[in-house]
Amino acid sequence: MEREEEIREALRDVLDPEVGIDIVDLGLIKDIIIRGDDTVEVDLVLTSQACPLASHLSEQVKRRVEGLRGIRQVEVKVLDEPWNWDHFVRQQKEGFRYGQNIQNVGGL
Questions:
Q1: CB atoms within 10 A of CB 24
Q2: Of 8, 48, 90, 93, whose CB count within 10 A is highest?
Q3: For the chain, how far is it from start to end, CA to CA, in angstroms?
């Protein structure tokens, strides 16, 4: 399994507690950047700019990725970008899974 896909699959265990959907399918993982063999950056968007769970979600992402074999350092960046619930609902109705093609989704 490719390293990015391994990380993305691991992040499916992290749920947004406000909506009960994993953060990958919800479209909160904007990008996963692998630097070298043991360092990862995860770019995350939030369902709301005033999300009271930003720190909680960031910590859950960091812990989950750090728990993978060979990962020593994880940086989670919370991006100041809008997230769109209507876009998420429309994509789910069409059968699109965010985790399979996140980099081709514009406007998140």
A1: 21
A2: 8
A3: 26
